[in-house]
C-alpha cells in the first residue's frame, strides 16, 4: 500500500489497469491501456529497475507478472477506483489482443471476465476446432455452469457446448438434459444455416455418447442426422462424423457401407474438401476386412508414407491394417 502511494499518477494508473493481466508484455499493455502517451515496454523496464514487485517470466524479459500479493492489492484498488464498465473494457481489449495473437484460451478468459457473451461464444466455437479441445475444458465448464439457464436459452449453441464439455470430462449423466434444453430453446426459431449447425451438433454429441455406450444403432442414426446439414467448410466435423459412421457399419458387418459411409452433402462446399489423414487408415482397415488383403496393405503403407512427415498420430490404426 505504501509503495503504491509513492508512485506518480501515470505509474499508478498503469499498475492498476494492467493488474487484470496474469502476465504482461509491452504490446499487450499498450493494447489494454489504449494510451499512446504511455509505452508498455518502457514502463515495464522502469518498474523492473525500481524493483516494484515485477517478476520476469523469461530470460529475454519479454513477459512478466506481478507478485501475487501485489496483484491482489492492485485489483482491489482497481475495483474501487474504476467502474465496472471501464474494467470490462480493459478485459475486452486484452481479449482482442490475445485473439489477434492466436492465444484463444487467454482471449476467452478475458471475454468471460468482461461478460462479453458473443465474444466468448465465438471463441469457444473456434476456427475449425472448438476451444474445449485446445486445453480449455475446465474454464469453459466453470463458465457455463455459472450462467443462468435463461442466458443459455438465448444462445442454444452454448447448451450443446455444455453437453460436449460434459462428455469430454466423462460426466455423462446430464448430457441428454442439456441437449433437450438446446432443442427446446430452438423451438420457434427460424431455420437458417446457424440453426441447422446447432441441430447437427446436437446429433453429433448424441452420436459420441452412443459411441461411448457401444450403442451402434443410435450411433448410426445420430451420425446420419449430424451429416444431414453439416457446414461445408467444417471439414473436421464432417471427417469425424464420417469416421464414426464407417466404424459403426464395420462393427455391424456392413462392409460395403463402411467402405463409403458418407451421404450426399445437402449443402455445396465453398472450398474443396481435402481427405482427412484419419480416413486413410480406415480405408486400409476396411479393405483388409473385406478380404482385399493386398489392397489393404498397399493402402496402409501409402498412409504411413503420408503420415510420417506430419506426425498426425494415426499410425497405430495403419499398423493394425498392415498386420
Report on the structure:
This protein is mainly alpha-helical. It has 3 domains: 1-82, Arc Repressor Mutant, subunit A (Orthogonal Bundle), CATH 1.10.10; 147-261, Serine Threonine Protein Phosphatase 5, Tetratricopeptide repeat (Alpha Horseshoe), CATH 1.25.40; 278-323, no CATH class. Helices cover 65% and strands 2% of the residues. The protein contains 19 helices and 2 strands. It has helices at residues 2-5, 9-18, 26-33, 40-49, 68-81, 84-100, 104-113, 117-125, 137-146, 149-154, 156-168, 175-186, 193-212, 216-226, 235-251, 255-259, 279-289, 293-307, 315-322, and strands at 54-56, 64-66. A two-stranded antiparallel sheet has the order 1-2. β1 (54-56) and β2 (64-66) form a beta hairpin. The chain is elongated and about 75 Å long. The termini are far apart.
